[in-house]
Design goal:
The strands form two sheets. The chain has an eleven-stranded mixed beta sheet, with helices on both faces. The chain has a two-stranded antiparallel sheet with strand order 1-2. It has helices at 2-12, 23-33, 49-59, 123-149, 240-246, 280-283, 303-318, 329-340, 367-370, 383-396, 399-409, 418-428, 433-442, 450-460, 477-486, 502-505, 507-522, 567-586; strands at residues 161-165, 168-172, 182-185, 198-206, 209-216, 225-229, 251-255, 322-327, 345-351, 464-469, 492-496, 542-550, 553-562. It is built from 18 helices and 13 strands. It has three domains: 19-142, no CATH class; 181-260 and 309-357 and 446-587, Rossmann fold (3-Layer(aba) Sandwich); 266-300 and 359-439, no CATH class. By secondary structure, it is α/β, with parallel strands linked by helices. InterPro entries: AB_hydrolase_1, AB_hydrolase_fold, PPH_chloroplastic. This is AB hydrolase-1 domain-containing protein. Residues 226-509 form the AB hydrolase-1 domain.
């Protein structure tokens, strides 16, 4: 009888009771209805395949679900991040099969469903708690659905602003198609007849020390000056595509560092005494003698020498502050030069800049340790260094070795690198190349580290822009992320596919971004940064596909812009890279 009464009461009150919602079903429903993935106080992980199967079984009545759900609040780390009340939306909102791991150290916690911790709670109290969670979950869903329906339908971009006031979420400008990556058509490179002509010049910096450089766009007398600095082992020829294209709008220079490119000495800095019966190998290698020439006594091909070289070149040849663009080693030198001479710099662009250079300590920073080092890159080379250099140089100057290096640093192997290859071979055949290589390898580190130079540029207010190829096997994206975390206000463009030399691999993209960045600075911010339709978009993360015509066919490159509020994306990307590296090591 009691059972019948209970059954009748349950039937009559069935409509009054709210439907049972399991925690996993609540999470799945919430994620399925929203166009963003990170709530202001909660990180909700995507449903795994097992979760989806559980929901399906639940619908068939085979599973009741947990009685209580707890949302774990998002913890904060010491890394500067957007306010906890601001919604962050990812670019790619498609479901992922893998569930992100919980990392308290990185400041990331995942929301999940947990059973009650106190198993002694009474059944009546447990039901009250369960109903409370169910009502709150339905209220949140209705609130978010209403806010989403009130969003502006005309907005089709990838950005929005959001706020949280007294726990209520407010949204505006939510895009209609969040999965769509906008395409941008950019110009290709000029043809042979349309590009700016390039002039090859020499500048005698010091007696017996001449610097080779190339210039373009001299007719643009009122245009800004742009100086390109090359990476290790190459020279000004590596910026041919920038000189021809950007020379149409700006005055452009590309410099060869001393000891590299065509800035090698024109005479032997330490000639071999042939009367001593030296081998024929020493006859064709300069700098392998016992006594240096007077002009070469203090010559060391160090980063301090290159910084001083750039400073005097800007002062004596260009004659005005410049925009400096550096790739790899050239990026480090550009930053170092800007940190020491901010009055000569209008802005610095880093193209996969190497974050360190030199193995031996700097004599000014570590005088005690430097005294114990037998040699610091000066001429003449010690006998043991000569023998070691001959063995190493024979290997690295071999054409097959050079081809292998080019395959590593260029992500797209269809790129024609014949010109670059022939220029490098020409450099390695210079009689002073081997001794110059030895001096570079044993030269001390600079007076400022990469991080110290960044900090000084930040204090001096030097504008910096980052343009990095994502597929670089040497300067991996993690190094660019560290720069962005140290200087969160600088624009960062991640280019893919592109390797260590994006200026030569995807010059159309680099030239387009450089033009836009210079226009932004010259207009004092009234012209938005490239790929940003509005100045306020600098806060967010944006992905665009840049299309251009190359050799008669269309090519598409993805560019990701990381703004001020992209710190969580940086952290997640760093964790993904570390995890991928760890998994690769176990294979």
């Amino acid at each position: 009888m009691d059972k019948e009464i209970a059954t009748r009461w349950h039937t009559s009150h069935a409509k009054e009771r709210p439907p049972r919602v399991s925690p996993r079903r609540f999470l799945y429903t919430l994620r399925a209805r929203l166009d963003f993935s990170i709530l202001p106080c909660t990180y909700i992980s995507p449903p795994s395949s097992s979760c989806c199967a559980e929901i399906e079984r639940e619908e068939k009545g085979k599973l009741k679900g947990f009685p209580v759900m707890e949302l774990v609040p998002l913890s904060r780390s010491s890394i500067s991040a957007p306010p906890i009340n601001r919604l962050q939306r990812r670019n790619n909102l498609k479901w992922k099969q893998s569930k992100p791991s919980v990392s308290r150290k990185a400041g990331i916690s995942c929301a999940g469903a947990k059973p009650p911790r106190n198993s002694g709670v009474s059944s009546q109290k447990s039901k009250r708690i369960e109903n409370l969670y169910q009502k709150e979950g339905r209220r949140l869903l209705r609130l978010l659905e209403g806010l989403r329906s009130r969003a502006s339908p005309e907005v089709c971009g990838e950005h929005y602003k959001s706020f949280a006031i007294n726990g209520d979420v407010g949204l505006a400008n939510i895009p209609k198609k969040v999965d769509e990556v906008a395409k941008v058509i950019i110009p290709g490179l000029p043809d042979d007849s349309g590009g700016s002509p390039i002039s090859s010049c020499y500048w005698e910096w010091k007696p017996k020390i001449s610097v080779h450089y190339e210039k373009s766009g001299s007719q643009n007398v009122d245009a800004p000056a742009v100086l390109f600095l090359p990476g290790f082992g190459v020279g000004s020829f590596h910026y041919e595509k920038q000189l021809e294209d950007l020379g149409c709008d700006y005055r452009v220079w590309a410099l060869d560092f001393l000891g590299q490119g065509k800035s090698l000495p024109s005479e032997d800095p330490a000639p071999v005494d042939n009367r001593e019966g030296n081998s024929e190998d020493n006859d064709v290698l300069w700098g392998f003698g016992e006594e240096p020439k007077p002009w070469a006594r203090e010559l060391v091909y160090s980063i301090d020498l290159w910084r001083e070289q750039v400073q005097h070149f800007v002062e004596q040849v260009i004659g005005e502050p410049v925009y400096v663009v550096g790739n790899s080693l050239g990026g480090f030198v550009a930053l170092y030069f800007a940190a020491c001479n901010p009055q000569l710099v209008r802005g610095v662009t880093l193209l996969n800049a190497t974050p360190f250079w030199g193995f031996l300590p700097n004599p000014l920073k570590s005088p005690g340790l430097s005294k114990f080092l037998p040699w610091s890159g000066t001429f003449p080379l010690p006998p043991i260094v000569r023998r070691l250099t001959q063995l190493v140089w024979e290997k690295i100057s071999d054409p097959s070795s050079i081809q292998e290096v080019l395959k590593q640093v260029y992500a797209d192997h269809s790129i024609n690198v014949d010109k670059v290859f022939s220029h490098i071979i020409e450099i390695t055949q210079h009689p002073a190349a081997a001794a110059s290589f030895a001096s570079i390898m044993f030269a001390p580190r600079g007076q400022l580290s990469f991080q110290e130079a960044l900090s000084r540029c930040q204090v001096e207010g030097v504008p910096i822009c980052l343009m990095y190829g994502r597929e670089d096997p040497w300067v991996r994206p993690i190094w660019a992320f560290q720069v962005k975390l140290q200087l969160p206000e600088v624009p960062y463009y991640e280019i893919s596919p592109a390797g260590h030399c994006p200026h030569d691999e995807v010059p159309e993209v680099i030239n387009f971004l450089l033009r836009g960045w210079i226009k932004n600075l010259e207009s004092q911010g009234s012209v938005p940064l490239p790929l940003l339709e509005e100045p306020d978009y600098v806060q967010y993360e944006i992905s665009k596909e840049l299309e251009y015509v190359k050799e008669g066919s269309r090519k598409s490159i993805k560019v990701r812009f990381l703004g001020l509020n992209s710190f969580w994306n940086l952290i997640i990307s760093s964790l993904k890279l570390r995890l991928a590296s760890l998994l690769k090591s176990f294979r």
